[in-house]
Design brief:
The chain is 39% helix and 17% strand. It is of the alpha/beta class. α1 (27-36) packs parallel to α3 (84-93) and α7 (193-208) packs across α10.
Length: 489
């Protein structure tokens, strides 16, 4: 295992997409951040791009998995002025003998595991300089990447490995790579449920409503906003035949250790596994409204049927919040804006998505599966930064967040009809620029996980890149700082 004195991790850049639809727009700042690292003193440095480096699923004409077109898509990303500064900065960074670059796999850039795509990525990052290539590590087999800092063990994984919607099966990917190396026809690719959702539904929806890529948390608020603006978008779920089945299959196989091979046994035994892996009951207030409304749209039930069913169930809130939102839309009332505001206000009242210390599913699942001997467990995938102690051992967990845009609906934005009106107008406009131009709506939080050896102490923290006159400054988030003595050598 390689040893370093400084480790820096960023993830979920999502370089890609057509102009006007690119959720990453911080190329100069990221380039300046990368170029600032070689000047740091104190030993060897590793920079990890921890998954979803590029976004093949956002490319025009995106496919579930595209061995034939991935190289040309990568070339287009490299040539795009929005992203070119990042590749140029990586080449400069690798010019320093004490700097190592790690490129890890995510669920939006699975094709980076393919030999031809890797070769092209290396060419874009290093040119034909063999010394620079020797400083690159590829972590594309789905197991993550490990090293030590000050003698303490760090493990970087993307995080989709514990997400039944977006898990990538290592054996299936290996079979693709084997076939391509041998000049054989690759076997058919079976996309996970999340990839199907992106290609079959979300790419169409976000052409009209780009907010779906940015709004956090995702589940209820996104569906509610789409329903308020255009119920036909929520109704596109009818295109998802087979998606839930794939989700349930992956959930069962993850829960029972079968992910890397087809489960053996009878159909009854497999059915029993799927039964055990049913999604947990919904707990969030109002979410049952979303579930019922979406199901109704999928089944194309008449509004009268839905209203009658709601009335029979006797829900006390059927004229306010979620209920009002749905009834307004179903009965053809003109202005759902206030009901949407009230619904979001209620749902997000106690939401902790942007709380660095909030315990989420990704943390819990990774923490329970990764050995307690890992001192620093680092993930991405959720786009939400985290810094908290591990529960299975004395170490620490970080999520490196994202450098893509985020939307956070704060209490002031939802406090009144007047405050929410520009937000609703921006959502309706259907353009990223309209979202950007709305005050306090879009956030850019360029977080970096930094683990550094200082004398005999290892300091681990989240830092935020801030542009300054002479480059960039990495500001510490004090609540994320954890100090540990360096391990004895």
């Amino acid at each position: 295992m390689e040893a370093f004195e400084r480790l820096y991790v960023v993830s979920d850049l999502h370089l890609g997409g057509a102009p006007g639809c690119q959720i990453f727009d911080q190329g100069p700042l990221l380039a300046a951040t990368i170029r600032s690292l070689p000047a740091l003193t104190g030993g060897r440095i590793a920079l990890v791009l921890n998954g979803d480096i590029v976004d093949f699923l956002a490319a025009p004409g995106a496919r579930y998995f595209d061995p034939e077109g991935a190289v040309s898509k990568l070339d287009a990303i490299r040539a795009d002025p929005a992203f070119a500064p990042v590749f140029d900065a990586l080449a400069d960074y690798l010019g320093a003998p004490h700097c190592t670059l790690v490129l890890a796999l995510g669920n939006h850039d699975v094709e980076l595991a393919l030999p031809d795509v890797q070769e092209r990525l290396l060419m874009h990052a290093t040119g034909d300089d063999p010394a620079k290539r020797g400083r690159v590590r590829l972590a594309t087999d789905g197991t993550g990447w490990a090293c030590t800092v000050g003698g303490r063990r760090a493990l970087c994984v993307h995080g989709n490995e514990v997400d039944e919607w977006n898990v990538v099966e290592p054996d299936e990917l290996r079979r693709q790579v084997t076939a391509l190396r041998q000049g054989a026809e690759p076997p058919p690719w079976s996309p996970n449920a999340g990839t199907r959702l992106v290609i079959d539904v979300m790419n169409q929806v976000k052409q009209r409503y780009p907010l779906v890529d940015l709004l956090k948390p995702e589940r209820v608020p996104v569906v509610a906003v789409l329903l308020a603006l255009d119920p036909s978008q929520a109704g596109k779920a009818r295109n998802l035949a087979g998606l839930i089945g794939r989700y349930a299959k992956d959930k069962a196989r993850m829960a029972t250790g079968f992910l890397s091979s087809e489960p053996e046994g009878t159909d009854a035994e497999l059915a029993a596994l799927l039964e055990r892996a049913k999604p947990e009951p919904v707990q969030a207030a109002g979410e049952s409204w979303v579930t019922r409304a979406q199901t109704a749209f999928v089944r194309e039930q008449a509004p009268q049927q839905i209203v009658r069913k709601i009335h029979e169930e006797g829900d006390d809130e059927r004229y306010l919040g979620w209920g009002g939102l749905f009834l307004d839309k179903l009965l053809g009332r003109r202005d759902p804006q206030e009901n949407l505001r009230e619904a979001l206000q209620g749902y997000l009242a106690d939401n902790r998505s942007f709380d660095l210390a909030a315990v989420d599913d990704t943390f819990q699942r990774l923490d329970s599966r990764v050995a307690p001997t890992v001192d620093y467990l680092i993930a991405g995938h959720t786009h939400l930064a985290r810094a908290l102690g591990r529960t299975s051992g004395p170490g620490f967990y970080f999520n490196s967040g994202t450098w893509a845009r985020l939307i956070r609906l704060t209490p002031p934005l939802l406090a009144s009809a007047a405050a929410f009106e520009p937000v609703y107008r921006a959502f309706s406009a259907g353009r990223l620029k309209a979202l950007d131009d709305t005050a306090d709506l879009v956030r850019r939080i360029p977080t970096v996980v930094a683990i550094e050896l200082h004398d005999r102490e290892v300091i681990a923290a989240l830092r935020v890149a801030v542009p300054v006159a002479d480059g960039v400054r990495l500001d510490l988030l004090p609540e994320s700082r954890f100090a540990s003595p360096a391990a004895p050598r």
